[in-house]
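job 3f2a | input accepted
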Amino acid sequence: MEEVRNSMTNGKHHVLNTGETTNTNTSKQKISRNNILDYIRTNAPLTIYKLAKDLKLNYSTAFQVVKEFEFAGLIETNYSKEDNRTQKIITIPKVEDKGEENESN
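job 3f2a | predicted structure (105 res):
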């Protein structure tokens, strides 16, 4: 299933197609945005650094993809202050189940 969302980068509109591929920094293999999103959904919460390291992406590539996913509402990022550094943590938004609300009424 391919998700297509409108997103905005550098003030210009473009279509975010999660089926698009991204080059990795070591082997020039391509990894689809669907695969990146699946990895995030499976392993969240995680940092952008861990995402980049595990998928062998440049940090800047991982950061850009995360930014696009966040703008499209597919993921959320928050800051962790567990140690003396501030790291951006990737999480999956919680979706409210409308069916449960209707059952209680």
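job 3f2a | The first strand starts at residue 4 and ends at 9.
job 3f2a | closed
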